[in-house]
Task: structure prediction
Amino acid sequence: MAVADNRQRFMPLPDDRLSGRGQPLAYPEAVRLVNPVEPEFKGEVDDKYQYSCENKDLRVHGWICMDPPVGFWQITPSDEFRSGGPIKQNLSSHVGPTCLAMFLSAHYAGDDLVPKFEQGEAWKKVFGPVFIYLNSVMSGDDPLVLWEDAKIQV
Result:
């Protein structure tokens, strides 16, 4: 998974969060990996909030599959449509592989950022643009160049 140049990593599997492999912590999203499929993750805490970004930095995020070498990216060239402004944090990608497009969110800021409407009140808003980009390289080539290519598309 890649969220930024300095935030890229191999990810645990969804099964690692299940009973017997993961130990639930203080809130449902946080799980200590006690018996993960890949032993390198043992003892780590997995939590979707670890991969949050400020809106201004959430232009491209997604996943690289190593075999075959394919990238799946969500590209958002502008954050004008998002609630909370440029420094509000939002969720991005996390275990699944999950790739989220957050338009309105009370995460980190509370319910005041979510619009409220009276019965019958007219409301209109444009969300996006959000672009899904797939890329690939030939087998044997470095799959990490897929991240560099996705950033160019922004």
